[in-house]
Amino acid sequence: KKFTKRGLRLNILLVGENGTGKKTFINTLANRQYYDPAQRCESGNLFEFGSKAFNMRINTHTIMEQNATPISLNVSFTDNYGFNLENSTNSKDLIDFIENEYKAVLTEEIRIERNTLPYDSRIHVTLYFVKPTGKPLNEFDITNMKKLGERTNLIPIISKADTLTDSEVILNKNLIMGSIIDNQIEIFDFLSPFEHEHQIDEEDQEDYLYLKSLQELMPFTIIGSNSKFDSQDDKRFRVNTCGTIDVNDVSNCDFKILRNVLLASHIEEFKEATIIKKYENYRIEELVRMHHQKEEEENKPPMLKIYQQLREEEHQLQLQLEQQLQLQQLQLQQQQQQQQQFQQGGGGGAATLQEVETS
Amino acid sequence: MSTTVDGVQFNQPQKYVGFDTITTQIENRLLKRGFQFNVMVVGRSGLGKSTLVNTLFSSKLTESSGRRSPTEPTEKTTTIDISSHTLIENNVRLNINVIDTPGFGDQINNEKCWEPLVKYIKEQHSQYLRKELTAQRERYITDSRVHCVLYFIAPTGKKLNQLDVLALKKLSEIANVVPVIAKSDSLTLDERAEFKKILQNEFINYNFNIYPYDSEDLYDEERQLNEDIKSLIPFAIAGSEQEIEINGEKVRGRKSKWGAINIEDVSQCEFVFLRDFLTRTHLQDLIETTAIVHYETFRSKQLIALKENANPNRQSVPIQPQPPTAQPSQQDIKSSASNGAIFPPTNSLL
C-alpha cells in the first residue's frame, strides 16, 4: 500500500550509439510518442561531460497502465556515444555519470545530520544497445560493458532485431554471450536468488524455470516501433520492407519479456541489487580510497604540508585581491556614471545618489 | 556527301569501304586480353560487405573476413586483403580483384584508420607509373589500380559519424567512391527516404567528390543517366547468397517470420540499380575515369616532383600563400611525396 501511494520509481540508463533505437524503445515501452527519433532530443536535462565527447539526456516519464501502479520512469540516455574518431574517454565518462549519483548518496550518508529519505537517483538498471551485426562484440563494446558491469546492473540488448533472420538471431546471441563470458563481463544474474541453493524446492520450481529462461534469453532482442498509437489498442507494429511485425509477439522478439522484467517482475530486484551489491562495492572502494588519501595526507613530510598550506593561503589571498579590485572598479564606474547623469540633468541625479546610499 | 557536326566536316565515302568493322576488330582483341576490374570494399565489421560483393557478381568471390567466434582476436589496425578471380560470361573474361579492408573502423581509437587504404591506392598508381616509365616496359601493363571504392554506411538513420565523414573525404579525393546504405532491409521505406535525404545533404555540405563525375564529353542521355544515378546515391541495398522461395519462385533473398525480401525486387531494395550501375552501364567508365582522372592527377604531381628533385637550384621551401594554379603547390608535392608514393631515385629513370 505504501508503494501504491508513493508510486513506483525506476531509474534506467540506456547506452548505445546514435541510431540504435533508444528513443524508439522508450516510446514502445510506454506506448506513447515521447520522442521523435528524427529530431535531436532537446527535452529534459542535459548532462555534459568535461571531455565533451558525448552527452546524457535525462527525462522522467510516468507509465500508467490499467489496474497497475503508476511507474515513474527516470530515463537517461546517451547522445553521440561512440560518435567520434577517438572514443577512449567514453568509458570513463559513463562510469563518472553513474558514480556521480553514488557519490551523492555516500556524501549524504556520512553526514552527521542527514536526510533519511533521500531522493534516490542512482541508476537501477543499464540497458546496453548492441548493433545487430551478426558478429561477436567489438573492442569498444567489450571495454565499456566491462566497466559498466562493475558499477551497475547490466543487461545487453540486440536492438533493431528485425534486421536478422531467425537463424541469424541465434547465431548473434551465441556470439555475443561468448564475448561476454570470454571477457568476464558482469551482466545481471537473474538466477541470483538461487545462487546459494543446491536443491530447488517444489514450490520454487516455477520461479526457477522462469528465471532460468530469462537468463538464457540474454541478450534480449528488441524491435521498436514509432507507429501511431491508438489509446484503445495496445498493439505496436513495425512495417519494414519485408513485412509487418507485431513487436509484442514473443515469437518475433523479446520485447514483451523485457518489458515485463523492467516494469513488473524485477523493479524491486534491480533496486535491491543496486543498493546491496553495486552501491556497496562502490562504497567500499570509495571509503578505502578516501582512507588512503587521508593516510597519505597525514604521512606527508611536515615541510611539504606547510608548503602546501602556504600555497593554499597565497591562492586564497590572490582571489580576495582580485575580488576587491573588481569591486573597486565597479564602484568607480558607478561614480563616473553618476557624475555624467548629474551633469546632464538634475532630476536623475537624486535617484542615483539614493541608489548608491542604499547599496 | 558531307555533313557538318559541331563545326567538324564529315565526308561519307561514295562506296562502302568497310572500316566500320574496326569496332569488331577491337572487340576481338579485347576479348583475347580480358578486362581487369579492381573494387575495394570499405566499412565496419558486420555490414554485409562480403555478402554484397558475392551477390553483385553472383559468385563466391570472397569470404567474410570478420570474426566468427568471440575467441578470435580482433584486428588491431586496418589491413588489406586481396582475393582475385576470373569470371567468364559469353566469352568475355573479367579478372576481378576484391580488396577487403578488415579492421577498418573497428577499434576504440579509429584515428587514421583510413591511411592503409589511401596508401594502398596510391601505391597502385605508383606501381603503374613506374612500369609505364620503364624503358623496356610490358606490352600490356596489368592494371592493379583501384577502380571503385564501395563505402558501406550503417543504417542508423542519423547523420554520418566522424569516421565516415573523414574517410569519405580522403577516399573520394583519390578514387571513385560509391557509397551504399548497408542492410537497408531494416529500415522502413519512409525511414530510408529520410535517411537518403540526410546523407545527400551531408555529401553536399562536406563537398565530397562522389562518383559519377560531370564531364564535358557526355552525351545528353548519358548526362541524364548520371543525374538519375546521383539522385539515387547512396544505394539502399541488401545482399543475399541464399535462395528462398517467394510465391513458389526461387529467388535470392532473406526470409523471416514476418515476411521475405527479394533482393532483385526494386520496390524492396536498390540492389538491382547498384548492380546495373556497376556492371552494365558504368563498368567501362569506372575503369577509364580511374585512368584519366585519378591516375593523371597522381602522375602529374609525381612527375613535377621529379623535375623539382632533378633541378637543384630550385628552392624547396614551401611558398605561401599559393594562388590557385594548374600546378600543385610545393606543399602538395611534399605531401604526396611523403604519402606512400614510393618512387625510385631519379637516376634509374632518366
Structure description:
The complex is a heterodimer of chains A (359) and B (350). Helix content of chain A is 49%, strand content 14%. In chain A, a hairpin with a 7-residue loop joins β3 and β4 (71-79). With 359 residues, chain A is of the alpha/beta class. The longest helix of chain A is centred in the last third of the chain and has 43 residues, at 302-344. Chain B is an alpha/beta fold and 350 residues long. In chain B, the strands form three sheets. A six-stranded mixed beta sheet of chain B has the order 4-5-3-6-7-8, sandwiched between helices. Chain B has a three-stranded antiparallel beta sheet with strand order 9-10-11, with no helix packed on it. Chain B has a two-stranded antiparallel sheet with strand order 1-2. In chain B, α7 (271-281) packs across α8 (283-310) and α8 (283-310) crosses α9 (330-338). Classes of the chains: A alpha/beta (359), B alpha/beta (350). At the A-B interface, α4 and α5 of A face α4, α5, β10 and β11 of B.
Salient structural properties:
heterodimer, A: 359 residues, alpha/beta, seven-stranded mixed β-sheet, two-stranded antiparallel sheet, 10 helices, 49% helix, 14% strand, disordered C terminus, B: 350 residues, six-stranded mixed β-sheet, three-stranded antiparallel β-sheet, 9 helices, 37% helix
Précis, in short:
The complex is a heterodimer of chains A (359) and B (350). With 359 residues, chain A is of the alpha/beta class.
Task: Lay out the secondary structure.
The complex is a heterodimer of chains A (359) and B (350).
Chain A: H1 2-6, E1 8-15, H2 22-30, E2 45-48, E3 55-63, E4 71-79, H3 90-109, E5 125-130, H4 139-151, E6 154-158, H5 166-182, H6 205-217, E7 220-221, E8 237-239, E9 244-246, H7 255-265, H8 267-299, H9 302-344, H10 346-358
Parallel strand pairs in A: 1-4, 1-5, 5-6, 6-7
Antiparallel strand pairs in A: 2-3, 3-4, 8-9
Chain B: E1 2-5, E2 8-11, H1 22-33, E3 35-42, H2 49-56, E4 81-89, E5 92-100, H3 115-133, E6 148-153, H4 162-174, E7 177-181, H5 189-205, H6 220-232, E8 235-236, E9 243-246, E10 249-256, E11 259-262, H7 271-281, H8 283-310, H9 330-338
Parallel strand pairs in B: 3-5, 3-6, 6-7, 7-8
Antiparallel strand pairs in B: 1-2, 4-5, 9-10, 10-11
Helix pairs in contact in B: 7-8, 8-9
